[in-house]
Amino acid sequence: METQKISPVPQAVYSPEPVPAGQFVEGIRELSRGLITKQKIYDYLVRYEIRPADLEQYKNWLPDRHTRNKIFRNEMIEVMLICWPVGAITPLHTHNGQLGWMTMIEGKLKVENYRKIDCNRPEAQQVVGIDCLTGATKIEMQHLQDEFAVPGGPLNTVDKTQTIHRIINAAEWNQRAVSMHVYSLPIDSCVVFDMDAQRCFRRDLKYDNE
Ligand SMILES: [Fe+2]
Question: How many structural domains comprise the chain?
Fold first, then answer.
């Protein structure tokens, strides 16, 4: 992996209008009936947010890992609240070739972006509906830029060109973090990379609130 390129912590640039959860979800449902693009969901998320009182029911804390809590899901799109205890860190993972948008509700997160340069099982990517069959034993990654996500800050996204990252709530910040994530299509699994062991594997994803 290459050396880190850290961009400065961004200032708040958006102030979405807080709306009831039902209204927010109805807007997402409506958007999911048309063609879903990166820009369309982005525009919605910088305009509206679920009002704080309605988010409480989705918060769910575990001491040692982040929790994924479903707010809405249909065949095209899912919305979840993720609660990050102090020091929580995801493995390096893909988003299965889907699109994703992340907004910060409270606290701060670091997103480290990566690009896969090479692996010794490239033919495993020739599969329909998921990004890869996995199983490589030699993987080369390039560490791209890091981004900091803060409430009202620029939205963090994953797409078809930037799809590998890990997310960190650094222990030194000593604060919990809450973020809202939208994925399309809904994602039931992802590829996880263990760069120390030089292996990758598919991991199932579940909600922690059902
Ligand atoms: Fe992710």
Answer: 1
CA of residue 90 to ligand 1 center, whole Å:
8
The span from the first CA to the last CA of the chain, in angstroms, equals 37
> Are 195 and 139 within 8 A, CB to CB?
yes
With vertex at residue 154, the alpha carbon angle to CA 207 and CA 195, rounded to the nearest 5 degrees, is 55
Q: Is residue 83 part of a domain?
A: yes
Expressed in angstroms and rounded, the spacing between residue 22 Cα and the centre of ligand 1 is: 25
> How far away, in angstroms, is 94 Cα from ligand 1 center?
7
Q: Of all residues in the chain, what percent are helix, strand and coil, respectively (each to 5)?
A: 15, 40, 45
Asked whether residue 7 is domain-assigned, the answer is no
pTM of the model: 0.92
| Nearest in space to 179 (alpha carbons), one of 209, 145, 210, 151 | 151
Cα–ligand 1 centroid distance for 132 (angstroms) = 16
Range of the domain at 86: 14-204
d(CA 97, CA 173): 31
pLDDT attached to residue 113: 95
pLDDT of residue 2: 47
d(CA 172, CA 86): 8
CATH number at residue 192: 2.60.120.10
Q: pLDDT tens digit string along 123-154?
A: 999 999 888 999 999 999 999 999 999 998 88
